Amino acid sequence: MAPRRLTEDSGSPVADNQNSQTAGVQGPVLIQDHHLVEKLAKFNRERIPERIVHARGSGAYGYFELTRDVSQWTHAKFLSEVGKRTDVLVRFSTVAGGRGAPEAVRDPRGFAVKFYTEDGNYDLTGNNTPIFFIHDPLKFPDFIHSQKPDPHTNKQESDNVWDFFSLSPEATHMFTWLFGDRGIPASYRTMNGYGSHTFQWVNSEGERVWVKYHFKTDQGIECLTGDQPAKVAGENPESHTTDLMEAIDAGNLPSWTVNIQVMPDADAQTYHINPFDVTKVWPHADYPLIPIGKMVLNRNPVNYFAEVEQAGFDPGNFVPGIGPSPDKMLQGRLFAYGDAHRYRLGINHTQLPVNTPKAATVDNYGRDGLMRFDDNGAMDKNYEPNSFGGPVQTDEPHYAGIAGGMSGTYEWDDRDTDEFAQAGALYRVMTPPEQDRLIASIAGDLSQVSKDEIIERSLANFAAADAEYGARLKAAIEALRS
Ligand code: NDP
Questions:
Q1: Looking at 95-207, which runs of residues are DSSP E strands?
Q2: Same domain, 236 and 123
Q3: Which of 22, 156, 166, 467 could form a disulfide with 27 if both were Cys (CB 3.0 to 4.6 A apart)?
Q4: Is residue 9 part of a domain?
Q5: What mean pLDDT, rounded, does the chain reach?
């Protein structure tokens, strides 16, 4: 077979890819060497803005299969029939580290799923935790600043991490989670995923329920403890990426059993926990897990940049039958994710092959913008209403008022001001060896803090969660600092 012909971006053949053009044998390099200039200029521009959080990630394709009839709760088409399969892209990630950071570190993990449904893409931007640190998006930039490199030292500082925590009691639950064993999963395959937020499902009668998603790993939970993470992170910074890719390539396909918790609409008004507070779970005893499907990953991306770095997940991407809840953090993310992609990838990022719907057709009046690379609507009119057969809104009842409107108010309520009870419950869920490791990991980190008042406030939060938990931490820190 003839060798493939090397060309410039214009298609023009390249005669020499080893030697720049010079003015004579000893002469300087010529600006007329268009191939050289183009090659260097493209190289300079290879990096796009790093995600401010979740910068380091891995992705894989697969499918979601419905295993239980859920039509009593939602009319979402991809959830309409037992056995129905929908293609998915999943992006796993760490959160605080930059794009080249090691993966075997204590950090939450992103668990973002893009369902390519016939009613358009449905994105679930979950984590490996059923809860989050804070419940108001106004605090998010401050929270992330406290976890990211310090403006002076340019490294993560225990002072900042614990200062913010000690002044944000609602984070006690998530900090207990993070410093427990599950704070360092052994791999992306061996951790659970959660939608974390509460969502609404609406059935064909227009009736609404509130739903939480739990993706339980079929591989079993595996975590790194003791000196394992330092060893793994040092020897293989890409440990999670390697594991996922090799497992799929070997046909050892990772899967998750997808469960939901369902809360009747009326309960949301009266349940003793605010069901829209993402720092709290719904206890299983009140709202048991209902298995509804299976998610299987079976194909690695061919090109990392095109299919993972350029993937954009947007929690505002719903399909009829599913919608948002008044969870404030979710409401903040409905804005922030799309905005991040507009900054990072550009206004036309939804046209990138990985982001564009695969089972639905896009037809609207959006036009132009940087890097518009389809036919831009060709000769079609770019306004609506029009008399030229352009797309019109549907009045099919099935599509009416996506997931219903909010009636009444779901203003933030303080019905449950106890920021600590569930952190205590989590401490008590852990086995004694898990508790020992939790105490050791918190004490190891918190004892590094330079200000006593930060340590004392932090200890008070943990003691409020569980007196024994607080007392054991206090003793462990005193021992380390003596
Ligand atoms: P349950 O006893 O019904 O469930 C306990 C949950 O804790 C299980 O989902 C279990 O997950 C999980 N779990 C077990 N060990 C750990 C650990 N070391 N770190 C994190 N999670 C762990 O209790 P409740 O529903 O009443 O909840 C009690 C506490 O459990 C909550 O305060 C919360 O912190 C935690 N939890 C609750 C969840 C929920 O949605 N209700 C979900 C996850 C945790 P698994 O079955 O996979 O082992």
A1: 109-117, 120-127, 193-194, 199-202
A2: yes
A3: 22
A4: no
A5: 95
To test the pocket of ligand 1, the residue of 133, 418, 426, 435 to mutate (highest count of ligand atoms within 8 Å of its CB) is 426
Query: Catalytic residue at 54?
Result: yes
Is the pTM higher than 0.85? The answer reads yes
Pair 312, 227 in one domain: yes
How many domains is the chain partitioned into structurally? 2
Strand partners, 59: 91
Q: Which of 351, 379, 401 is the last residue of a domain?
A: 351
Rounded distance between C-alpha atoms, residue 421 and residue 468, angstroms:
13
Q: Looking at 35, 75, 127, 197, which residue is catalytic? A: 127
- The total number of residues written for the chain in this structure: 482
d(CA 467, CA 123): 40
Residues 152, 280, single domain; the answer is no
Q: What is the pLDDT of residues 319-342, one digit of tens each?
A: 999 999 989 999 999 999 999 999
CB of 283 sitting under 6 A from ligand 1: yes
**Distance separating alpha carbons of residues 281 and 288, to the nearest angstrom:** 12
300 lines ligand 1 (CB under 6 A): no
CA of 269 to the centre of ligand 1 (A): 24
What range does the domain containing 217 cover? 57-128+185-351
Q: Which of 324, 351, 378 is the last residue of a domain?
A: 351
Give tens-digit pLDDT for 17-67. Answer: 999 999 999 999 999 999 999 999 999 999 999 999 999 999 999 999 999
Does 295 lie in the same domain as 209? yes
342 C-alpha to center of ligand 1: Å? 36
What is the C-alpha to C-alpha distance for residues 383 and 143, in angstroms, rounded to an integer? 43
